[in-house]
């Protein structure tokens, strides 16, 4: 069943690499994806294609749940598994997925109950730091535009 708030994707007809790159850019931002692509070398080129096709071109491009919901699930899984760098990246991505700080708080409460308090505690520290960084960046850019 497709949802009106989620861009439709045709997992059987669309090229998952093309769909994946579009979704990856929409969620993580052009700057992040451009940096990742610029740093790609022969060792990780197959990996970059795999995640673009597999994660972004199939799972993240499905229209059955919203990007907000996928974002919450992803944050919870990364927190539970202790993947701190990926967790920080996906906390930054909430600015593009529509997941609010309250949504992330709820996801991390689930982590505390189902994966353990230490995992949630660590994840909350990471999320707090990322959100402070985003707020500082937002305030800095607003201040710069006001002074121009």
Provide a descriptive summary of the structure in words.
With 148 residues, the protein is mainly α. It is 75% helix and 0% strand. The protein is built from seven helices and no strands. It has helices spanning 16-28, 30-38, 45-59, 67-81, 84-97, 101-114, 117-147. Helix 1 crosses helix 2 and helix 5 packs across helix 7 (117-147). 25% of the residues are buried.
What is the 3D shape?
globular
Question: What can be said about the biggest beta sheet?
Answer: none
Mean pLDDT: 90
State the helical fraction. over 70%
The termini sit apart by 48 Å
Number of helices: 7
Q: Provide the succession of SSEs.
A: HHHHHHH
| Structure classification | mainly alpha
Which descriptors apply to this entry?
148 residues, mainly alpha, 7 helices, globular, disordered N terminus
Q: Any chance you could write out the topology, listing elements then pairs?
A:
Blueprint: H1 16-28, H2 30-38, H3 45-59, H4 67-81, H5 84-97, H6 101-114, H7 117-147
Quick recap:
The protein has helices at residues 16-28, 30-38, 45-59, 67-81, 84-97, 101-114, 117-147.
């Amino acid at each position: 069943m497709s949802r009106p708030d989620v861009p439709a994707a045709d997992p059987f007809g669309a090229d998952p690499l093309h769909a994946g790159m579009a979704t990856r850019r929409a969620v993580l931002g052009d700057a992040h994806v451009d940096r990742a692509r610029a740093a790609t070398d022969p060792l990780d080129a197959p990996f970059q294609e795999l995640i673009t096709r597999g994660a972004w071109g199939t799972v993240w491009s499905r229209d059955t749940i919203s990007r907000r919901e996928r974002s919450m699930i992803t944050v919870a899984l990364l927190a539970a598994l202790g993947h701190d760098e990926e967790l920080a990246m996906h906390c930054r991505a909430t600015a593009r997925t529509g997941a609010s700080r309250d949504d992330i708080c709820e996801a991390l409460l689930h982590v505390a109950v189902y994966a353990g308090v230490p995992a949630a505690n660590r994840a909350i520290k990471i999320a707090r730091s990322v959100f402070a960084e985003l707020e500082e960046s937002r305030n800095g850019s607003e201040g710069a535009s006001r002074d121009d």
